[in-house]
Amino acid sequence: MEAFEGLILKQINFKESSKILYIYTEKGQMSLLVHGAKKLSSPFLNLTQNLTLIKFYATGKALKTLTDGEILTDYRKIKTDLEKFTYVQHLMEIINYFSESEYDHQKLYTFLKKILSHIENETHYIRYVYMFELKYLYLLGVAPNFNVCSACGVTDNLQFAVKDGGYACKIHATANSGVSHASVAVMKQIYYHDLKTVLDLKPDPDIRREIRLFLDEYYLYHLNFTSKSRTILSGLLGY
Ligand SMILES: [Zn+2]
User: Fold this and answer.
1) How far is the CA of 150 from the centre of ligand 1 (A)?
2) How far is the CA of 207 from the centre of ligand 1 (A)?
3) 150 and 32, same structural domain?
4) How far, in Å, is the centroid of ligand 1 from the Cα of 137?
5) The model's pTM
6) How far is the CA of 42 from the centre of ligand 1 (A)?
7) Count of domains in the chain?
8) Would you say 35 and 46 are in contact if contact means Cβ atoms under 8 Å apart?
9) Distances in Å between the alpha carbon of 72 and those of 41, 46, 81, 106, 229?
């Protein structure tokens, strides 16, 4: 029997009364079969909710089976706030979608727990959602270039656009227009922020909106990704 810790990202029904959970751990995503999880008499009813951090024991080789476990954090303050919950679902969809990608899972796992704690406990939490999305682009090897023209390294007269992977000079820019300087400055600060220090930044609604649309377009253009939660979010946000 092995011990694990992880965050439940999603789940599917399996046979009549069982479930398979997709759990993100410090070694990457794993699948976990939970026998009888859908029965009301299951001792694991609370343990098998999405967005729950659990410690658990499992047996088996290819598909592991849950034998016992406990909840470490249930993120109640996120689950009871529809907007927060939808934003976090969006992040969980991203992690699940790219779960086969090769990157430092231990690093991401630790970072994810810190991000969720900020989202849960802070009023101005959207900057932490953006922080996750921006830094995740780095892990996937497609981070926007925030400093120089991606093509020639020039540092003057730059325009920041999705198609150009961030900054490009007048000669190398292929996009007709770019993101406002104010939004780029906010994204740059968020992208380079170290969570050990205080994030002194509260972007106004126009900038939040512009960054949201930039990130959506960036994930779509460079990674061919869009989430189901993003559609729900647009119903809540109006964009
Ligand atoms: Zn250039």
Assistant:
1) 7
2) 26
3) no
4) 22
5) 0.95
6) 61
7) 2
8) no
9) 21, 12, 20, 18, 25
CA torsion 93→97→102→106, rounded to 10°? 20
Kindly give the distance from the C-alpha atom of residue 151 to the centroid of ligand 1, in angstroms, as a whole number. 5
Pair 94, 60 in one domain: no
The per-residue pLDDT string of the chain (239 residues; one tens digit each, 9 = 90 and over) reads 889 999 999 999 999 999 999 999 999 999 999 999 999 899 998 899 999 999 999 999 889 999 999 999 999 999 999 999 999 999 999 999 999 999 999 999 999 999 999 999 999 999 999 999 999 999 999 999 999 998 999 999 999 999 999 999 999 999 998 999 999 999 999 999 999 999 999 999 999 999 999 999 999 999 999 999 999 999 999 99
CA of 158 to the centre of ligand 1 (A): 8
Cα 167 to ligand 1 centroid, rounded to whole Å: 9
| Domain-ending residue, one of 74, 103, 120 | 74
Range of the domain at 47: 2-74
Residue 33: CATH number of its domain? 2.40.50.140
Q: Which of the listed residues 74, 97, 129 is the one where a domain comes to its end?
A: 74
First to last CA, the chain: 47
C-alpha dihedral sign at 143, 146, 147, 148? positive
Ligand 1 mean position to 80 CA, how many Å?
47
